[in-house]
Specification:
Layout (H helix, E strand, L loop, with lengths): L1 H8 L3 E2 L5 E2 L1 E12 L6 E13 L5 E5 L11 E3 L1 H7 L1 E2 L1 H27 L3 H14 L4 H14 L2 H11 L11 H13 L3 H14 L4 H13 L3 H14 L4 H12 L26 E2 L5 E2 L26 E5 L1
Antiparallel strand pairs: 1-2, 3-4, 3-7, 4-5, 4-10, 5-6, 8-9
Helix pairs in contact: 3-4, 3-5, 4-5, 5-6, 5-7, 7-8, 7-9, 8-9, 9-10, 10-11
C-alpha cells in the first residue's frame, strides 16, 4: 500500500489489478547543431512532457510550458513509440512540476474565494498570478473573465473571451458550470455577439445538450432573431421535452404571436405557462434545470485599454544540455 501511494505521489496512477497505468512527467532528447563553420558544435536538447495512458492503450502527451506546467496541444502516440522515446522523470515532477501546479491551484482557489465575497480586484490579482504561470489554465481564465463581467468591464472580458473560445479544454464536461456561468454573464452584460459565438463554438465540440440549445435561443432572441431563437428552442425541446425553461420560453413566443398555431416543435410539449421566460437553463449535477433571475446590466463598458496582452500558446520546454 505504501509503495502504491509513493508511485501516485510521483505522478503514476495505479489501476485496479495492481498494474501501473502510465501517467507522469517524461522527457525526450534530440541532437541539434549550434553555430556555423569551425565554431559549430552539437548539443543535446531535452524536452519535457506530461504523459497519460488512454483507455485504448495509446499515450496522450502534452508539452510543458516555460514554467513547467502541462500546456499546449495534446497528441496520442502508440505505446511502443512512447516506451522507446520517452523517459520517466519522477524526480523532476516532484521537485519542479508539482510545486508549479500547486502554486497555480492555490492562486485559483484564493481568486475564487475573493470573487465569491465580491472582492473583484483581489480576485483579478490572484487569477492573473495563475495565468502568468499557466496562461491556458481553464479555471483561471474563466475566473478572470467572470471577474471582469462582475465589474461590467466588457473590454477586458472580451479579451478573455477571445482566449477561452480557442481553448478546447474550456468546453469539456468538467468545466460545464464555469462555461455556463461565463456565457450567461456575457449575455447579461449585453455582449450578445460574443455569447452567441461562444455557444456556437461549444455546439461544435459537445453532444446534444438541451441547456446549451436553450441558451443559444436566448442569445438569438436578445439579438432580435426570432427564427434563430425558435430553431434552437425546438432543438432544446427535442432533446428534453420536459425542460421547464424551454417550455416557458416557447409558450411566451406563442403568446407574442411568433409561433403559428399549427407550428410543429417535433415533440409533444405541454406548455404549462405563457409567462415570459425568467432565466437561463443552467446545468446542475443531477441534470435538472434551474431558473436564474435576469438581473440585466446597463450594458456600459469600461473604456480602459486591457492590461493583459493576448499571448500565443508556448511550445514545449526545451533545455540545452551541452
Amino acid at each position: 500500500m505504501a509503495e502504491q501511494e509513493a508511485k501516485q505521489a510521483e505522478g503514476h496512477e495505479i489501476v485496479r489489478d495492481g498494474a501501473e497505468k502510465i501517467k507522469g512527467i517524461f522527457s525526450t532528447q534530440s541532437v541539434a547543431k549550434v553555430g556555423t563553420g569551425t565554431t559549430q558544435r552539437r548539443t543535446i536538447q531535452k524536452t519535457y512532457w506530461s504523459g497519460e495512458e488512454l483507455d485504448d492503450g495509446r499515450i496522450e502527451v502534452q508539452p510543458l510550458n516555460r514554467n513547467y506546467i502541462p500546456s499546449g496541444p495534446k497528441r496520442a502516440i502508440d505505446r511502443e513509440e512512447f516506451l522507446s522515446k520517452y523517459s520517466p522523470e519522477p524526480e523532476f515532477y516532484m521537485s519542479t512540476v508539482f510545486p508549479a501546479i500547486k502554486q497555480v491551484d492555490e492562486a485559483i482557489v484564493r481568486g475564487e474565494k475573493h470573487r465569491e465575497r465580491g472582492a473583484a480586484y483581489s480576485a483579478e490579482f490572484e487569477f492573473k498570478q495563475a495565468t502568468a504561470v499557466d496562461e491556458e489554465n481553464v479555471r483561471a481564465n474563466f475566473g478572470l473573465g467572470l471577474t471582469y463581467l462582475d465589474r461590467g468591464d466588457q473590454v477586458k472580458a472580451n479579451d478573455i473571451f477571445e482566449r477561452i473560445v480557442d481553448l478546447e479544454a474550456a468546453f469539456e464536461k468538467e468545466h460545464k458550470h464555469l462555461f455556463n456561468d461565463f456565457g450567461i454573464n456575457m449575455r447579461k452584460n449585453r455582449m450578445f455577439e460574443q455569447a452567441l459565438q461562444y455557444y456556437l463554438r461549444a455546439e461544435e465540440l459537445v453532444a446534444d445538450d438541451e441547456h446549451l440549445f436553450h441558451n443559444i435561443a436566448r442569445c438569438y432572441y436578445e439579438k432580435g432573431d426570432v427564427q434563430g431563437c425558435k430553431k434552437y428552442l425546438k432543438k432544446s425541446l427535442q432533446v428534453n421535452p420536459n425542460l421547464k425553461e424551454s417550455k416557458m420560453f416557447w409558450a411566451y413566443l406563442k403568446s407574442k404571436g411568433h409561433v403559428a398555431e399549427n407550428e410543429d416543435i417535433g415533440t409533444n410539449v405541454d406548455a404549462e405557462t405563457s409567462a415570459k421566460p425568467k432565466g437561463d437553463a443552467e446545468s446542475k449535477p443531477n441534470g435538472d434545470a434551474k431558473a436564474k433571475p435576469e438581473g440585466e446590466t446597463n450594458g456600459k463598458s469600461n473604456d480602459k485599454v486591457p492590461d493583459a496582452e493576448e499571448k500565443k500558446p508556448s511550445g514545449p520546454t526545451v533545455l540545452n544540455l551541452d
